[in-house]
Amino acid sequence: MLMAQRYKRWQIGSRLSLEAERALQNYPPLLRQILFNRGFVTNELAYQYIAAALPDGTQGKRLAGIAQAVERISWALRRGEQIIVYGDYDADGVTASALLVQTLGRFGVQVRGYIPNRFDEGYGLNKDALHQLKDEEAGLVITVDCGVRSIEEAEYARSIGLDLIITDHHHPGAELPDCVALVNPKQPKDDYPDKDLAGVGLAFKLASALLEDCGQHLTEQLELSELLDLVAVGTVADLTPLKGENRALVRAGLQSIRNPRRQGLLSLIGTAGLRPDRITASQIAFAIGPRLNAAGRLDSALAAFQLLTTQDVVEAGQIAQQLEIQNRERQQITREIQAAAERIALEKDTDALLLFAAHEEFNAGVVGLAASRLCDHYHRPAIVASKGPT
Description:
Layout: H1 18-23, H2 29-37, H3 43-51, H4 66-79, E1 82-87, H5 91-105, E2 110-114, H6 127-135, E3 138-144, H7 151-159, E4 163-167, E5 181-183, H8 199-214, H9 228-237, H10 244-257, H11 263-271, H12 281-298, H13 302-309, H14 313-346, E6 355-359, H15 367-378, E7 382-386
Parallel strand pairs: 1-2, 1-3, 3-4, 4-5, 6-7
Helix pairs in contact: 4-8, 5-8, 5-9, 5-13, 8-9, 9-10, 9-12, 11-13, 11-14, 12-14, 13-14, 14-15
């Protein structure tokens, strides 16, 4: 039996400087040190962090491409075009999809979500899906949490006459996709101050700008506060830094969750054995997020999307229970793959600097989780992969 020793390397933060000591004198000593360690060395920065205040300059219209996106969506609303919200299969993508579908639905337009199957279609945009959507008479596709590196797919969409708006928070490559509008604060020449928004954060910015410009055309009233629960869940589940704008959005979103109006989220919280009035960011990270992610890791993420968009009590309860079962199955599969990967990686060299394991039977949806656990256990980089057909 292979045994591993676990070591912890503690890194002690520097003692706060005299300047910071004076600047943060209104705070208790322990809090001063914590603020200093996190880089908040002035009274203004410390207050903004503790109060979770929105930083200056975070108006959605400052994002490059968002004006063009709103203009094209507005045109689609006037013409009654069918709009597709094309999302990723993780919690960030699912919450972003639900947010935009809910927003556009209040305008009375034909809108539906499309989330690719991880196992059949892979990550992000794919040509077969775009072709199918065009055949189903979609006029506009809006991506959330994906698409910034889909150069060929964007060209294909244009070639078949399908307009494409891409909203994505991932780092772009050397070439940007050719589309109607690209909303991504990491793209060159975008001076938006917060580069760490999650995919659902960008969807929220687009929804905000759309409501500001076209809110008079709503068929049913929509307040931005109704969307903040989704923003909080997706932002925390995607492990984005909880500082700056993210911190402000999550703080507000937690308040929304504690007074829940979304039946699906309420059912999921109950299934997880939590109390909505005491929900914390940690509970989103370790209980709510994994249950939403479980659907896309084992099967289709559409179940998670349906949970967040339904207001039917019975349907919400059934889907929440389904996700609970899938999450337990995901945990068991992860443990099994971790154990098998450990044996494969160490059977020839127990001192290998890189742990590598690949097998045909490894589930592609959870290999990343198994690799992460091996990294945590051995303090070495680990790669766990699912072999495809040869």
